[in-house]
Amino acid sequence: MDSFTNSNKKLFNSSHINANEELYEICEICSYTCYAKRFQHYFENWTSGNNDIDKFIQDTQSSIHKFYDIDKTLEWIPYERFYNIKHIEEGRYKFNWVDGNIIDWDNKTQSWKRKGQNMSVELKILSNPINISLEFMDEINKTYGITQNPITNNYMMVLSNKCKECNDICYANRFQLNFKNWTSENNDIDKFIRDTQLSTHADLKKALEWIPYSKLNDIRYITVNRDRANWVDGNIIDWVDETKGWKRGGQNMIVELKKLNDLKNITLEFMDEV
Ligand SMILES: [Zn+2]
Ligand SMILES: [Zn+2]
Where on the tree of life does the source sit, at the highest rank (predicted)? Predict the structure, then answer.
């Protein structure tokens, strides 16, 4: 450790007012009694009962040094902190969360400051507790923590209804809620369309959708691989809160239909299309 950090440490230690502060160590990374140190102090006080999950939560908490990192906090949340269960769909539930999420450390009370008491959160079953970092990375919603249903023993992610990138409900959230209502009946195509929808956030241009053939009228042959048709609905241009549906433009527009040659490689075919 260099002398600058050392002198900083001394300065910090000597400026302690609150005796409780002495319980917490100075962080080797940021030279401060940071959030990571506060979290580490309580590592002994909770366990998920699963080593991989404990490690994942601990690693996340140990990476929270700066004020603006607090949004990334994950915590172990006992199941009894939730009430008012509603089933949404296969593997997804809505609950109210008594405590709300951590927003800061409170020096006066020597405890976490929280907001959003009794807020509604979504609980989603973790399909593979060994590979949770991947599941968390793939999740577009902001995540608050992990809990376990004591009856089924399922571990569950605790999610906000807001997108973690936009910190708001964005187009990607709207599309995601509608995933259960359509399928192309081909997994690769479903995944491809879903991925484009999840990448929209504030930009609808990236979205593709599954269009039932019945929404196409007056289909005419052009060449072997191409047809022309009228698209009844037109394309998505915005979300309308009042109707909880998409606003569309260009009803009955003329579109061209081009046969997909290789269903496994649709990304390439879409990239090559001018
Ligand atoms: Zn730190
Ligand atoms: Zn977003």
Answer: Eukaryota
| % of the chain beyond a pLDDT of 90 | 76
- Predicted-complex ipTM score: 0.93
What are the helix (H) ranges across the chain? 3-14, 35-41, 51-62, 132-138, 171-177, 187-198, 266-272
**Per-residue pLDDT reduced to its tens digit, 27-76:** 999 999 999 999 999 999 999 999 999 999 999 999 999 999 999 999 99
CA 248 / ligand 1 centre spacing (Å): 49
The architecture of the domain spanning 69-164 is 2-Layer Sandwich (3.30)
CA 26 / ligand 1 centre spacing (Å)? 8
- Quote the ligand 2 centre to 178 CA distance (angstroms): 15
